[in-house]
What we know:
This protein has a single domain (2-119), classed as Alpha-Beta Complex (Protein-Tyrosine Phosphatase, Chain A), CATH 3.90.190. A five-stranded mixed sheet has the order 1-2-3-4-5, sandwiched between helices. It is globular and about 40 Å long. It is α/β, with parallel strands linked by helices. Helix 1 packs parallel to helix 2 (63-73). It is built from four helices and five strands; from the N terminus they run ββαβαβαβα. It holds the Pfam family DUF4180. Residues 9-118 form the DUF4180 domain. InterPro entries: DUF4180 (IPR025438).
Amino acid sequence: MNITVNEKDGSRVAVISSDSLIIKNVDDALDLLADVHYNHGCDKMLVRKENIVEDFFELSTRLAGEILQKYTNYQMAIAIVGEFGSYNSKSLNDFIYECNQGKKIVFRSTEEEALEALHSID
């Protein structure tokens, strides 16, 4: 796993990249949050869809809710980047839509869109 910091006008976003799964469960998500916050000084992060276990995108597992609630509680904004159109799930599409209405959790198709959204958060 590699973490780089993207800075713009005083805003710092940790950009996570890896060739393997990074978030497989709630503990992995919390470890990543702690690493980003304490070792990189960021309260915003960008993670690619392919680095998150597929169960996250199956809302019946409740994994997405558990992880994103922890991130909200610890005031960590997160952008998840990827193609989400392949999921044939109305509940997931509704969930993504609702998240995108706020500012702390966003789903975007490109890294550039995700960085723009995260840097716009105060």
